[in-house]
Amino acid sequence: MYEYLLGTITEAHPDYLVIEVNGVGFRVQVANPYSYPLNEDATKIYVYQAVRDDAISLFGFHNAEEKRLFTKLLAVSGIGPKSALAILANPDHEGLVEAIANNNVSYITKFPGIGKKTASRIIIELQDKVDSLLPTFDLQPQVEQLPTNNQDNPELADALAALKALGYSAKDVKKVASSLKQEGGLSTDQYLRKGLTLLS
């Protein structure tokens, strides 16, 4: 089992990134690919390896605490890797833990693919583990990108594609797109964060 990869992130896509380690490119699915720095040496990504009959997948995280929260969510019946990543895409992890501690079902049902039954199951199965879920989370690093003059706004397009990849419906994505279009000169990461805030 891998603990982390240390290398250079060479590609970022809406639902995954590629990190090159000693000449080998690893495809890693992450909650927000645009929050990681591109083409910088010695970037560390904590990883979780999932093995199924038909695939071996890597899921990546900014730090060990984020990875621990992911594995706790996976242990909940009915929560798969995609749902867990969609939950982690919202940077307010402490808000999630507080919702679990306070039996706040409505907060958790705002995540894509999470209904009341699954939200209740998350609370029931993790409520007694709240102390282990509340370490001090490191803030995800802000990746500075130069604003673009391109009227098509590829940063916004990538952010909207990332929201769809996380499981949000086309209707929900379209709803926040109009608000995001009013924001100018943001990076893909910033658009994605604002979109997640609007959706939650």
Structure description:
With 200 residues, the protein is of the alpha+beta class. It has three domains: 4-61, Beta Barrel (OB fold (Dihydrolipoamide Acetyltransferase, E2P)); 64-133, 5' to 3' exonuclease, C-terminal subdomain (DNA polymerase, domain 1, Orthogonal Bundle), CATH 1.10.150.20; 154-199. The chain is 42% helix and 18% strand. Strands 1-2-3-5-4 form a five-stranded mixed β-barrel. It starts with a strand and ends with a helix. It comes from Limosilactobacillus coleohominis 101-4-CHN. Residues 71-90, 106-125 form the Helix-hairpin-helix DNA-binding motif class domain. Belongs to the RuvA family.
Summarize the structure.
This protein is an alpha+beta fold. It contains nine helices and five strands, in the order E-E-E-E-E-H-H-H-H-H-H-H-H-H.
- Supply the CATH superfamily name of the largest domain: 5' to 3' exonuclease, C-terminal subdomain
The main β sheet shows up as: 5 strands, mixed, barrel
- Quick one: overall form? globular
Give the rounded overall mean pLDDT. Answer: 85
